[in-house]
Specification:
With about 325 residues, this protein is α/β, with parallel strands linked by helices. The strands form 2 sheets. Strands 1-4-3-2-5-6 form a 6-stranded parallel beta sheet, with helices on both faces. Helix 3 links the parallel strand 2 and strand 3. The protein is globular, with a radius of gyration of 26 Å. The relative contact order is 0.11. It binds adenosine monophosphate.
Length: about 325
Amino acid sequence: MNKILFFVDIYKWLISFIVFLQAAKLLFFFGFINLKRNDELYYNEDMIIFKHAEDLQSYCKKNNFSKLSMGFVPTMGALHTGHLSLIDQCKKQTDITICSIFVNPTQFNDPEDFKKYPVTIENDILFLEKHGCDILFLPAEKEIYPDDSSKNIHYDLGYLETILEGKFRHGHFQGVCSVVEKLLRIVNPDYLFIGQKDFQQCLVIKKLISIMKLDIAIIICPTLREANGLAMSSRNLRLNDSEKNLASHLYQTLEKIKKTMTPFNFSVLKSKAINDLENDGFKMEYLELAKSSNLELVNVFKPGDKLIILIAAYLNGVRLIDNLLIN
Ligand code: AMP
């Protein structure tokens, strides 16, 4: 009898032990998921929205933000995962994340493009809260450009303004510099987060910061892409699904050139690529190879040179740009 009771006890023990293990597994699993969730998305319901520069500045002063590191992500809204990757990076690297949304009229060389620029402000605010942005600066045009004279400052950008985007979008970089200078002077960040997607713009902003002698570190973040390779862009909202598929040919072309390029064959690859893209329905503006340090255009190069291929084209009236670094 005792022997039987002994085995029953052992059996009970074994069952309890297995139940305990299962429970521990479940606890660990849910705990881990929660940890991951908290790590990836940090809802900041306290994100503050300022419409006036003065209010933003006095808030930063009142809270002693000058003692903390401040990161700034300027955007034109219609936010997508690419923009949000800049916010995430900014959150990782700095104490306070400030984003601005302002569709800057002075950087649109084509008034139609300005009129059609997508605006999705409610969604943008939700996305920013979801990604833990601390402050959104949402100025009206008068806040940035109180009068016409404030739109007409000239920046000496030299060679950078004569090629690629500068050549095809007259006045575009002057407009970019006016708005970026004004925003930087309002926000006064330690770090500025911008995307490699607009590579020439990154060099222009570097130059602006050195012209203005501002003490701001620039962090260039990688381009986020759709699964088919299409660089994410607010302008993609103006494409339907089949156009989005076609638009991915731009990136595929860059990849193909990168794979098959030798020091001497870029010109041949370029002619073939332009021909193929035009047959696909693109209206090409440029496809160029350049040194990535200063965008000096080249056709031949030495192995190991740091280069970038840049492309711009219209697809059914929507202007798309992309680039790919080499080495
Ligand atoms: P925009 O709203 O187009 O002026 O862009 C605001 C910032 O987001 C700029 O610094 C862009 O370079 C950056 N950006 C735009 N698209 C992407 C993308 N697909 N991946 C990463 N950054 C991007």
